[in-house]
Design brief:
alpha/beta, 6-stranded parallel sheet, 10-stranded mixed sheet, 18 strands, Rossmann fold, Dihydrodipicolinate Reductase, domain 2
Length: 504
């Protein structure tokens, strides 16, 4: 079977009705790995964040079977790292096209990692899941709302284990702060502010201008056709101008000069989800879980600097409204409609919004979130929500959640990982595949960042990403996956998929 036939065989088995609802589909059942055996991995996207992922999975006990990367230099680096870690490189196969890897290695692997540009996450993961392969997918899980729906459907039908790579989820501090919010330590949460210092890559007018630079031949180490993948084909463009000045110094971003490959693709609508999709998976993780957010109903971009038709704005403020909902933790309790205000471009909310925090810290943290409840407030001081401060109504300053009596009086119920640092989320994924982790009531799965969490959280974020492109208030019908009365917004729900790269 050639690569195109391999991919089309899956697309043919999953027809779509005109309303976007998928007909019943049966993929291969999830692969079973008995306790005590190693999970065999195929690595798709081996460099950059991909190397971070596979080295942590290898440290957690996985077996590396194959490396796949469109950039052969990334595989060279990974093999060198693998050898440094004591691995036998002679037993590891290498590929530049993930379709070829899945075709050749389907019987030899149990799971894959997907650490590629955002626009390829769904295509790779959905195809792998239909083969019964478990998937560790870097954040954001997918790039579009249509892909989000498909991802969830296929994962449920095949029964595979999935884990989104918002690695802060494994931290005991994060899980404790989630427990406190879910148990109502600050009451019913009505408003949430979330902010980030990203993007650290060019966005706005600068990113658009780079697409007009002269095209050139891709370097010999890069498979450009596979890099573009599902997206519309376009010429390769080399380095951005040296004259471009970053809004603030960041050595990592400044050292990567390619317009698309290897890092700056995040800015472009066709390939990434901008700062919102990149960082909200981390920074919004605590408030999304703690407030038990679910269905988004509307979104509006309140501010956009340098909006354009190619790349996300240089900085923005987006407001997403979530419907009232039944609490899963406080049985019989209804939670109110909640507004989430997102800030990016190194833009923080006004100090007036959080006087208790400013009175304690003397400034607003550069990245974090702030939750306003009927009984008090909570502020996270980082992306992952590991450290948080709380003040109840009438208290002029905030205190650590580890010391405030209102917090210490509340019980604990979420499972904790024993591993130190961020390796926990990787170990949880491997253990879940082997059935060695407890079921988590909140997500109805063995992984804390499985689809019961990642799919609904992605939906609100992706509605917000479309609001960055389409002005005005966007009314979102979650049940039917459509924007009400807005043709332009609806045109961005489903991605362009290049012929030969169909996957659903």
């Amino acid at each position: 079977m050639n690569r195109r036939s391999f991919l089309k065989s899956f697309a043919a088995s999953a027809a779509f009705a005109s309303g976007g609802c998928r007909n019943f589909f049966i993929g291969k059942p999830a692969k079973v790995v008995p306790p005590g055996q190693k999970v065999r991995l195929g690595i798709i996207g081996s460099g950059g964040k991909g190397m971070y992922d596979w080295t942590h999975l290898y440290a957690a006990g996985a077996e590396i079977v194959a490396f796949c990367d469109v950039d052969s230099s990334m595989i060279d680096s990974s093999l060198a790292k693998f050898q440094e870690l004591g691995g036998n490189t002679s037993k590891v196969r290498r590929y530049s096209d993930w379709r070829k890897m899945l075709e050749c290695e389907e019987r030899n692997i149990d799971a894959v990692t997907v650490s590629t540009p955002d626009h390829m996450h769904a295509a790779i993961a959905v195809t792998a899941m239909k083969l019964g392969l478990h998937c560790y997918v870097q954040k954001p899980l997918v790039r579009t709302l249509w892909e989000n729906k498909i991802f969830g459907e296929v994962a449920r039908e095949t029964g595979v284990i999935t884990q989104m790579g918002n690695q802060g989820s494994s931290g005991s501090g994060h899980r404790r702060n989630v427990e406190l919010l879910q148990q109502g330590v600050i009451g019913d949460i009505t408003e949430i502010h979330v902010w980030t210092d990203r993007p650290i890559w060019p966005q706005g007018d600068a990113a658009k201008s780079f697409t007009k630079l002269p095209a050139c031949r891709p370097p010999a180490n890069l498979d450009w056709d596979s890099w573009v993948g599902c997206a519309e084909m376009r010429p390769y463009i080399g380095d951005r101008p040296d004259s471009y000045v970053f809004p603030f110094s960041n050595k990592y971003a400044e050292n990567i000069k390619g317009v698309y490959h290897r890092f700056n693709w995040r800015a472009f609508y066709d390939f990434g989800t901008g700062a919102f999709g990149d960082m909200a998976c981390h920074t919004m993780n605590l408030p999304f879980r703690g407030a038990e957010l679910g269905m988004p109903t509307k979104a509006e971009c309140k501010m956009a600097i340098e909006p354009n038709d190619v790349a996300y704005p240089a900085r923005s403020i987006v407001e997403v409204t979530y419907a009232s909902r039944k609490s899963r933790i406080r049985k019989g309790h209804t939670l109110p409609e909640t507004k989430v205000i997102w800030y990016d471009g190194d833009h923080q909310p006004s100090a007036d919004i959080m006087p208790q925090v400013v009175a304690t810290l003397r400034s607003v943290p550069r990245t974090g979130c702030f939750l306003i409840g009927t009984k008090g407030v909570m502020c996270s001081l980082s992306d992952y929500g590991q450290t948080a401060l709380i003040a109840l109504n009438g208290e002029a300053k905030v205190r650590s959640t580890t010391k405030h009596p209102a917090c210490t009086a509340l019980g604990s119920y979420l499972p904790r990982r024993k591993e130190k640092g961020e390796i926990g989320i990787y170990g949880e994924f491997l253990d879940a595949i082997k059935g060695e982790t407890p079921m988590i009531e909140e997500t109805h799965s063995r992984c804390y960042a499985d689809i019961e969490h990642s799919i609904p959280m992605m939906e609100g974020m992706l509605v917000g990403c479309i609001a960055q492109r389409v002005p005005g208030v966007l009314d979102w019908d979650s049940a039917n996956q459509v924007f009400i009365g807005n043709r332009e917004a609806n045109s961005y729900v489903k991605p362009y998929i290049r012929s030969g790269w169909d996957f659903a």
